[in-house]
Design a protein that fits this description.
By secondary structure, this protein is mainly alpha-helical. It has a two-stranded parallel sheet with strand order 1-2. Strand 1, helix 1 and strand 2 form a beta-alpha-beta unit. The longest helix is centred in the last third of the chain and has 24 residues. The model has no long low-confidence stretch (mean pLDDT about 85).
């Protein structure tokens, strides 16, 4: 990747990391600032909205699909289990939107 903007987490506040990304690949790393930082600037609405969507998806994968609990015995087993959990989430989102005309992210609702 190059010539793009990445939305980072608050953990990526390092000025050195941001400078290196921009210098080597022309990537702008946009991270939200903490409220107690000097020269606090609120992040743009579109980035906050995108971050919220990403955090919601990660939360759903961790809570409903237990993606952190993976007892695979091999690398292929690990890949298969992770892929099956992501595929299940994608299928539920597809059914919500195109079959039931519901919001995509309501995944705890019964299919009946």
């Amino acid at each position: 990747m190059n010539n793009c903007t990445l939305i980072g987490d608050r953990g990526y506040l390092s000025a050195q990391v941001q400078t290196d990304l921009f210098t080597y690949a022309n990537i702008k790393l946009d991270t939200p600032m903490r409220i107690n930082q000097r020269n606090y600037i609120k992040q743009k609405y579109i980035f906050r909205k995108s971050r919220k969507r990403i955090e919601t998806l990660f939360s759903q994968l961790c809570d409903q699909f237990k993606i952190r609990n993976n007892y695979a015995k091999s690398l292929n087993g690990f890949k298969t289990r992770i892929l099956s959990k992501i595929a299940a989430l994608t299928f539920i989102q597809f059914v919500n939107v195109f079959v039931f005309n519901r919001k995509m992210n309501i995944i705890k609702t019964a299919l009946v």
